[in-house]
Design brief:
The protein is an alpha/beta fold. The chain has 9 helices and 23 strands. Bound molecules: alpha-L-arabinofuranose.
Length: 515
């Protein structure tokens, strides 16, 4: 939840109909790629999700036994379908700040015996009718992998060990037998373990200093590596405080696989329409810390520690009713996203692509209703926010080797792009125009003969959001991009997102794309 000052946004001009208009002459922004100059590999792990017990993410979203969409386990079928559509490979659970007061054992066993607790952070009531076993069952239905967060704000090694034992120990102990009794015979497949959430933050209830967190995190990490050869340890890092990162990494270095950072954006604040620049700086600084520590280690202690952006969120100021009354499944953090939000999200994806050498995981916070790409309504209805299509398309096409772009004519930095060479030989190009007022033309020089196989654009009036039965801002097919004489060219409207997939001509034949 970093509140950071960014770059001042361009001034927007409002036309008579209240819609932001293009007022500047289009400029040509050019870049080139060399197919052999690669930054790193982007895997499906860059398009993760997050199911926190927050608002209507779980209750009324993922889990709603009274809804006509509910399946035999009370999970909404339409939500499962959309998560599959988004190709979300991994979901983090159960928080977030929620984890600070979470006791995993409250949410197992017969529902009628589970305690009702308050969640002081989001001012919610939680009857624990959705717990670890339900989450794992849901994950199985979606076909994704779990990422589990330990409560290291207010609990420690012993509770972490107990939870691990319940989830991962085969049989013969009280906790593993309990799991078997509650319906899951085999241990769950869980690789990713987050050691706490944002523990550096003053807002976190259970906030600690780096050395005290580092000590506990090291012990939990040591335990995980000792008992579980598959464990991937995610240490809680901080996006803006490299002293924190240096301290906790130094303490838990031996057991750390990923260092987590978060990226929050607040579009209503000046500069946050340029969130990609902020993420860029945070990634550079964090990567530099990791590299520096690694280079000081003797050869045998060197590790390939990477970054996990296990939350990036678009928080445009709408939080919901102030929480004087504690309720279950509150309508909180449900902003109606506009085109600007989807451009900001596209900018973040492009920034992650261009740091593919260091970013191993990223997950949107969050997946359903609360600051999420889909919104559910009662009686089986669901709709797509403006950020839905860019997320779906990048997760579908944005996997492969990232090429390094060389820029010219982009001094103002309005245009950002990434180019990904896919396994089947096709090239996916993602572009955003972050200017709220100026249209541009983008030209990408690339060697070889290519043809455009897919061309999508998302743009639209800047003060409009989607709603139930009114999804006005969706990605659409457009035919205004061209490839000729070694150049891909396309017009970019002000505040727009684009994806172009090109197929390459090899030995006189077009290589077909993966299905
Ligand atoms: O994603 C919403 C909240 O934002 C999460 O609980 C917290 O980790 C982050 O600050």
């Amino acid at each position: 939840m970093r509140r950071e000052i960014g770059i001042v946004a361009a001034f927007a001009v409002i036309a008579a109909d209240g819609v932001f208009a293009d007022v500047e002459t289009p400029k040509v922004v050019a870049a080139s790629v060399d197919l052999t100059n690669r930054i790193g590999t982007v895997g499906k792990e860059l398009y993760g999700g997050f199911i926190e017990h927050l608002g209507r993410n779980v209750y009324g979203g993922v889990y709603d036994p009274d809804d006509p969409q509910a399946d035999e386990d009370g999970f909404r079928r339409d939500v499962i379908r959309e998560m599959k559509e988004l190709k979300t490979p991994i979901f983090r659970y159960p928080g977030g700040c929620f984890t600070d007061f979470w006791r995993w054992e409250d949410g197992i066993g017969p529902r009628e015996k589970r305690p009702v607790r308050i969640d002081p952070y989001w001012k919610q009531l939680d009857d624990n009718s959705f717990g670890l076993d339900e989450f794992m069952k849901w994950i199985g239905k979606v076909g994704a992998e779990p990422m589990i967060t330990f409560n290291l704000s207010n609990r420690g090694l012993l509770e972490a060990e107990r939870m691990w034992e319940y989830l991962r120990f085969p049989k013969g102990t009280t906790l593993s037998e309990m799991r078997r009794k509650y319906g899951r015979d085999k241990p769950y497949d869980i690789r990713y373990w987050c050691l706490g959430n944002e523990i550096y933050g003053s807002w976190e209830m259970g906030n600690r200093d780096a050395a005290s967190y580092g000590r506990d995190a090291r012990e939990v990490a040591k335990f995980l590596k000792h008992v579980d050869k598959d464990a991937i340890v995610v240490l809680c890092g901080c996006e803006w405080d490299q002293r924190w990162n240096e301290t906790v990494l130094s303490m838990a270095w031996k057991y750390t696989d990923l260092l987590s950072i978060h990226m929050g954006t607040w579009q209503q604040k000046k500069g946050y329409d340029r969130s990609g620049d902020i993420l860029d700086r945070n990634l550079e600084a964090t990567a530099e810390t990791i590299r520096r520590l690694n280079s000081k280690k003797p050869e045998k202690e060197r590790r390939n520690v990477k970054i996990s952006i296990d939350e990036y969120f678009l928080w445009n100021g709408v939080c919901g009713a102030p929480g004087t009354e504690y309720t279950k499944g509150r309508h909180i953090l449900e902003p109606d996203y506009t085109i600007l939000d989807s451009v900001v999200m596209g900018d973040l994806h492009i920034t992650m692509h261009n740091h593919a050498d260091m970013v191993a995981y990223a997950g949107i916070a969050q997946s359903v209703n609360a600051i999420a790409p889909i919104r559910t309504e009662k009686n089986g209805r669901l709709w797509h926010q403006t950020i839905y299509d860019p997320l779906r398309l990048v997760a579908t096409c944005g996997i492969g080797e990232v090429l390094r772009l060389k820029w010219s004519g982009n001094e103002v930095g309005d245009v950002r792009a990434s180019a990904i060479l896919r396994k089947d030989g096709s090239l996916a190009v993602f572009v955003v125009n972050r200017s709220l007022t100026a249209a541009h033309d983008f030209v990408l020089s690339l060697p070889g003969a290519w043809k455009i196989a897919e061309s999508k654009e998302q743009s639209g009036p800047q003060n409009v959001a989607n709603a139930l039965d009114r999804e006005v801002i969706r990605a659409r097919d457009v035919t205004d991009a061209a490839f000729a004489d070694g150049k891909l060219s396309m017009p970019l409207k002000a505040c727009s997102w684009r994806m172009i997939v090109l197929e390459k001509k090899c030995d006189g034949h077009w290589r077909t794309r993966e299905g």
